[in-house]
Amino acid sequence: MSKTTVLLLGLLMASTVGCSINNYVLFPERDVTQTPEQFGLRCESIETTNASGHRVTGWLILPTRGAGENPAGSPAGSGIEEAVAPRGVILVSHGNAGNVGSFLPWAKLLSDAGYAAALYDYQGYGRSGGDADVTSLVGDGRAVVGWLRERGHLAGGRRLGLVGLSLGTLVSVKLAGEVDDVAAVALEGALIPGDELKRKFGVLGAPIAWLLVKQIPDELDTGAQIARVRAPLLFIHSADDEVTSIEGARDLFGRAPEPKRWVEVPGARHLTPIMEWPDYAATLTRFFDERLAR
Length: 294
Hints:
- The N and C termini lie far apart (64 Å).
- Strand 3 (89-93), helix 3 (104-112) and strand 4 form a beta-alpha-beta unit.
- By secondary structure, the protein is of the alpha/beta class.
- The chain is globular, with a radius of gyration of 19 Å.
- It is 33% helix and 17% strand.
């Protein structure tokens, strides 16, 4: 079979199944099965709207006097402690499959270190309104930054940290290039989406990849947006990541401006270092301590 025939068959298949990028790359979950209360965390509910008028929800996880007594991935067995003034505020843009409940361990880790962690759901995820859509991802993050400002959480010269996890790295890179308050950006499982799609689909799937890549908004093209970031960058990537390739992450790191740091975790898989790497918490919190803590 010639290459031309393969491409034509691929295009026919793609048009037949309806090649919407949202159907191929977004995997939202509606049911929020884990809550801050189960982890012994004090929080303030986030509820705002994005540019499309859809509700964006989440939690602002607050540091407490009893923080740090339970491992980052473990629900607490005791009551909720009294909240204390945060050392800084960190916006957590989570990964693809799941919702805010799935990513509470990262928020707990940051609150244990004395930070307020704003963990939110994208449109169509968890309790946020609308349908999941790649065109709304950055706008959802912008809406939460606006909510933090309106509530006074960024007042008094307090600056903002960003944590992007997998899909969330696309949002974090864009926000880091446009929000003046950003003082530090940590990216775990980072990717350049167009390149990653081409890599996943390979030669036989090239027609589908081509149709999908054309639908990626420019604001999610981390390969181009990374040059606009002015805050220090921390890249954490699992050596055996099966979801976002380490080759793609290295390419993005190479394009990123200084100052930047690359941390590769041997033997870990996609977003598992928080559970498997003993130095994870210290590496992440020290990065923010040096640039964000007041």
